[in-house]
Amino acid sequence: MTAFLSAGHHLKDSGAVAHGKQENLEMIKFRDIVVNYCKSFGVTVIIDDDKETLSEYLLRIKTGSGSVVLEFHLDAAANANATGSTAVVGDDADRLDMAFGKELVDTTSLILGIKNRGVIKEAQTHRKKLGLMREQGIVALLEVCFISNPNDMAAYEANKYTLGSALAKIVKKFEDML
């Protein structure tokens, strides 16, 4: 069994930018934290290359029904008070996808002390369709917090290692179910 973890944006795609922080750089560091914990828990992990686009990553990886697939992002809003964590699952999500997303968002909001925005389907996102959701296995995208909210980012900075360990345990738990 293999877990596939990605940072969501590569080095040439900053993603959201706010308060001197770039989503891509923050999530690359966070992905690496989670990967290190996963490996310490005995999980085999394949990650995105920081130089490849999402489409290149999706063409390279070979997920299967025995895979856990997780992508990390930071949300952004014009309103600096927008807060919280959200998990996104495919429109065709099954009970394991939903449970995985729920556990990710519940744990993130609890550890960071921010709003739990729940689990949503990809059709509820502003993009409506997400390439990651075409992968096989247990699949979720986690919007960790709002990069545009200084309080969310302070909570993230103070707790990213605790959060990384907790999320790695969730990845292992779901890997062990497959």
Beta strand count: 8
Name of the CATH superfamily: Zn-dependent exopeptidases
Q: Ranges with pLDDT <50 over ≥5 residues? A: none
Q: How big a fraction of the residues is strand?
A: 15-25%
Q: Summarize the main sheet.
A: 6 strands, mixed
List keywords for this structure.
178 residues, alpha/beta, Aminopeptidase, 6-stranded mixed β-sheet, two-stranded antiparallel ribbon, globular
Could you walk me through the main structural features you see in this protein, from its secondary elements to its overall organization?
The protein has 178 residues and is of the alpha/beta class. The chain has one domain (2-177): Zn-dependent exopeptidases (Aminopeptidase, 3-Layer(aba) Sandwich). It is 40% helix and 24% strand. It contains 4 helices and 8 strands; from the N terminus they run βββαβαββαββα. A hairpin with a 2-residue loop joins strand 2 (17-18) and strand 3. Helix 3 runs antiparallel to helix 4. The longest helix has 28 residues, at 150-177. The protein is globular, with a radius of gyration of 15 Å.
List the helices and strands and how they pair.
Blueprint: E1 2-6, E2 17-18, E3 21-22, H1 23-40, E4 44-47, H2 54-60, E5 67-75, E6 85-89, H3 95-112, E7 116-121, E8 138-146, H4 150-177
Parallel strand pairs: 1-4, 1-5, 5-8, 6-7
Antiparallel strand pairs: 2-3, 6-8
Short description:
The chain is α/β, with parallel strands linked by helices and 178 residues long. Helix content is 40%, strand content 24%.
